[in-house]
Structures are given as structure tokens and as C-alpha cells.
Amino acid sequence: MRDGPILCLVTDRRIARMPLDEAVAAVVFGGVDWVQLRERDLEGRDLYELATRVIAAARDAARRRGGTVRVLINRRIDIALAVDADGVHLGFDALPVAQARSLLGAERLLGVSAHTPDEVRAAAAEGANYAHLAPIFAPLSKPLERTPLGLAAIAACGDALPLLAQGGLQAHCAAQAIRAGAAGVAVTGALLAAADPGAAAQALRATLDGASR
Prior knowledge:
Blueprint: E1 6-10, H1 20-30, E2 34-37, H2 44-65, E3 70-74, H3 77-82, E4 87-90, H4 97-104, E5 109-114, H5 117-126, E6 130-133, H6 152-156, E7 163-166, H7 171-179, E8 184-187, H8 189-192, H9 197-211
Parallel strand pairs: 1-2, 1-8, 2-3, 3-4, 4-5, 5-6, 6-7, 7-8
Helix pairs in contact: 1-2, 1-9, 7-9
């Protein structure tokens, strides 16, 4: 895991203002540490080809920044292995953690989505490396489907797993999530819907780093 708060982009190419690989390059250069490729309408060759472009763009941008990036694939272990991704993020309709781990191997990251502290603790017991807890606030990139959990839910998870807060995490409230105990934040609209995704990433990176001091 990264030293200091993690800034994770969860992709949705439908709201990006430029081709997704270009947007990913911009935000990674601006300070994004992790990229989760979440394009659930794509399958097979289309997803493989997009993943290949996104990984290349992310890793090139990280090298130019003088840093590192981890790219994770949502759900698709086969695609993650085929493109040599850094891990897989499991949604609610994915394989159980233990079965996913047996396919993925011990070295790659394995994360899960959670909507309650109890789900975070269960994921920890099953061997996940990290969890996304959502929605903390109302999402920016999609309609609200669940009642926002608020910052208290982050604190309620304790240290069960490194936790990325997700849902409505703009700069002014991302710092609050870090101070509540989150290891980082996962965002979509705050970066991809921005007029300048790279500048938005820089601003959010500075906010997170400031909150951890």
C-alpha cells in the first residue's frame, strides 16, 4: 500500500471529456495512485483492448511523474491476468474472495466493494487487501441509489482493512474522509467530469496530502 492517502480513479468512459486513456494519463500525471478500470458494459476483446491502452497510458504517466501507479480491473480476473494488471476489484456480483484469490495469485491486489462496516470486516476475514466503502456522500457520477453512510461509517470500520471512501468525494470533503480514518478516496466524477482532469487530480492530491499531516 502507498505511504500516505491513496487517490484512486474508478473509470466511467461515458462521462469523460476525452478518450479514456488520455484522461487516465492526465490524472495519473496529476497524482492518482490507483486506477480501477470499471467499464461493465464492455466484454471480451473490447475490454481487453481498452485495458491494454489504459495500463500503458497510466504507467507511462507515472514514469513521467517520477512515481508509480497500480491498475486494477473490475471483476474480470481473466482480463487482469491477460494484461498484467496489478489486481482486481470485486463487485457484489463477482466471485467470492477466496476463489478469486486462488485464480489471481498471492501477489496481486484484491479489493471488494462494501456498503456497511460489517461487510468490510467480512472481506478482511476472507483475505481481501482493501475495501471501498460507499456511498459516503451522494455520488457525483450516477444517481443516488442508497442512503449516504456519512463519515461515521468510516470510523466504525476501525482498522479491519485499508479503506477507500467512495461517493461524492470532492476536495472539500475528501480531507474529512481521511481524518475519519480512510486510507484514501475513490472518485469518478470529481476527475473525469472536470474540465481539466489533470488539474483536478493535482488539487485533490494536495488536499489528501494536507489532510494526512
